[in-house]
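Lecture notes, continued. The same structure-token format from the folding unit now serves as the input rather than the output. Read the line below as a description of shape only.
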């Protein structure tokens, strides 16, 4: 594709933006409806535009220290190079605004979002090599965003993959539309400094709304912006290495400026102290307003009532406080001997059922076990353990997990205890990360031998958040679950690669659904073939933990409401037998022998290690 670009747009770079506009032109709707064929073609055209922008980003990154060699940089700068720098790339920024507003049409949300993300990547990369003015780009974007609703503003900032660019945009919105109550000299010096923990703490402590805008609706929008500021600051600087888009006078230098930032506990304490001042300020302002204002029952322009807005405001404050509670995670996990993640790159392979069986087997061997369900969109652990409808209790030490047996050998924490089972969890990455952090920091597990973390499929936000927050505690490793089919193995390979990239040891591979055990003759039939998991383990030189066939009795046990009733698929009409808990009932299933050997191996391996 690059040679075609060189020939087509080298002489007249501005033609590219006209071509991009033609590719992304919304289909015309006749009689209020859009032709399905036109809509399908529109999706294809937007996808092609995304590929072109992605190629531009790749070329810019490859020639970041030699900007004259990149024809794509000329396209970003509208034909101008470093020697004739533009104040900002007007066509690029106008295209960005148009494409973001097109997302609201909901024609092809994923493709349009990708397009916006690629355009923002172009701005971040071009400003890093000083081809365009970062400050002017930030001002243009901030002025466009400030009048947008809170949800749209967050959606846009989620598309900004460069944390530094996102922080500059948020800083500009705070500086321009909010006043600061600190000393003038300190305010100017702090706000002109690069993004960092100190600057974020300053914004939390001193930023305040003008006296004319102190109703809950304005406070809610303001706090949402501060929440995003804290989230991006922690994400950018907790990794301890961050690129700063600062211009350099040394044009021949092959190295871009890099600043090393350490997230010391003192900085975290400063951030938390600033938050407490912010919360105190909000409490005093709104309480005095509610006692004197007669508009408490009014409805704002976004459709939310005064009372609902207050609820949303304090929910955002709770989220903000959770974002800064990371130092407590290690304290909560100090009494847990081994933390094991259960992973798989494929959905529907039985991660949750394997997690439950492993927990039941460890508990039956006398260990104290906890299950943390971080599958926020599809929590199934409460249903499998027969704990649906149970409530989480708040104690002075934190959230108390729900126990599955009277002896309290097996406990569980899941978002399924916090929301109705029919309510969908529609959260973006930052909220998911905050929820996982809150699970790790606020749940009082007590003394545990094992904490099993049940994860959703893939390598998404939940996995990265769990690994990041557990990094200091050094989790024991991950158990990989797969089924024998090739289509599942292809995705599970990516999960093992994920473990290698983040430094998470692979404890072994379990081949789930490896055959079907007939409830009458006990013969095992290989419905989905067999041997795929074992071959995968040999290829990556990791232990193969065993095969787990489909057992109808286990399926009945996990589905039935009474977990003390022994399942009997062979004779459902026979007299019912009962045990004292699900831990004992599970021992009557044939699969308990398979997972008992897996639990024994893991316990021996981790104890010796």
């Amino acid at each position: 594709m690059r040679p075609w670009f060189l020939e087509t747009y080298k002489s007249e770079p501005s033609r590219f933006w006209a071509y991009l506009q033609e590719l992304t032109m919304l289909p015309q709707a006749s009689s209020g409806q859009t032709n399905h064929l036109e809509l399908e073609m529109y999706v294809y055209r937007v996808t092609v535009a995304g590929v072109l922008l992605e190629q531009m980003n790749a070329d810019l990154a490859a020639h970041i220290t030699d900007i004259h060699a990149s024809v794509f940089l000329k396209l970003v700068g509208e034909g101008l190079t470093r020697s004739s720098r533009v104040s900002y790339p007007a066509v690029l920024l106008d295209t960005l605004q148009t494409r973001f507003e097109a997302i609201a049409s909901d024609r092809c949300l994923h493709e349009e979002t990708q397009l916006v993300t690629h355009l923002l990547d172009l701005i971040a990369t071009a400003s890093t090599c000083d081809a365009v003015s970062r400050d002017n780009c930030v001002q243009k974007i901030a002025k466009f965003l400030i009048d947008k609703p809170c949800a749209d503003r967050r959606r846009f900032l989620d598309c900004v993959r460069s944390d530094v660019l996102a922080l500059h945009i948020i800083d500009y919105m705070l500086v321009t539309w909010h006043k600061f109550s600190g000393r003038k000299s300190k305010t100017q010096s702090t706000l002109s400094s690069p993004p960092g923990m100190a600057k974020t703490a300053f914004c939390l402590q001193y930023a305040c709304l003008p006296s004319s805008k102190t109703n809950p609706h304005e406070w809610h929008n303001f706090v949402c912006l501060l929440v995003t500021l804290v989230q991006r600051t922690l994400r950018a600087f907790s990794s301890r290495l961050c690129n700063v888009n600062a211009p350099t006078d040394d044009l021949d230098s092959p190295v871009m400026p890099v600043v090393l930032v350490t997230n010391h506990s003192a900085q975290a304490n400063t951030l938390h102290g600033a938050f407490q001042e912010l919360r105190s300020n909000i409490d005093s302002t709104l309480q005095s307003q509610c006692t004197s204002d007669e508009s408490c029952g009014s409805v704002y322009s976004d459709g939310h009532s005064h009372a609902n807005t207050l609820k949303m405001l304090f929910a955002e404050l709770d989220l903000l406080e959770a974002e800064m509670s990371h130092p407590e995670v290690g304290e909560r996990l100090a009494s847990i001997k081994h933390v094991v993640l259960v992973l798989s790159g494929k959905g529907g392979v039985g991660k949750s059922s394997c997690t439950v069986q492993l927990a039941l087997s460890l508990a039956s061997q006398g260990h104290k076990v906890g299950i943390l369900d971080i599958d926020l969109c599809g929590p199934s652990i409460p249903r499998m353990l027969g704990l649906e409808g149970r409530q989480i209790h708040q104690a002075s030490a934190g959230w108390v997990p729900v126990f599955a047996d009277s002896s309290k050998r097996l406990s569980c924490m899941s978002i399924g205890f916090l929301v109705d089972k029919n309510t969908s969890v529609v959260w973006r990455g930052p909220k998911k990360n905050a929820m996982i952090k809150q699970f790790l920091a606020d749940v009082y597990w007590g003394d545990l031998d094992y904490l099993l973390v049940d994860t959703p499929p893939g390598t998404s936000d939940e996995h990265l958040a769990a690994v990041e927050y557990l990094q200091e505690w050094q989790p024991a490793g991950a158990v990989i679950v797969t089924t024998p089919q090739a289509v599942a193995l292809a995705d599970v390979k990516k999960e093992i690669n994920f473990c290698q990239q983040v430094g998470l040891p692979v404890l072994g591979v379990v081949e789930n659904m490896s055959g079907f055990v007939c409830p009458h003759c006990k013969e095992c039939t290989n419905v989905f073939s067999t041997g795929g998991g074992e071959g995968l383990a040999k290829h990556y030189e990791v232990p193969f933990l065993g095969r787990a066939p489909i057992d109808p009795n286990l399926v009945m046990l996990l589905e039935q409401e009474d977990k003390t009733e022994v399942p009997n698929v062979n004779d459902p009409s026979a007299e019912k037998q009962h045990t004292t808990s699900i831990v004992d009932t599970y021992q009557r299933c044939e699969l308990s022998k398979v997972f008992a050997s897996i639990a024994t191996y893991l316990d021996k391996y981790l104890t010796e290690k």
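Point for the exam: Confidence is low (pLDDT under 50) at residues 79-85, 239-264, 291-303.
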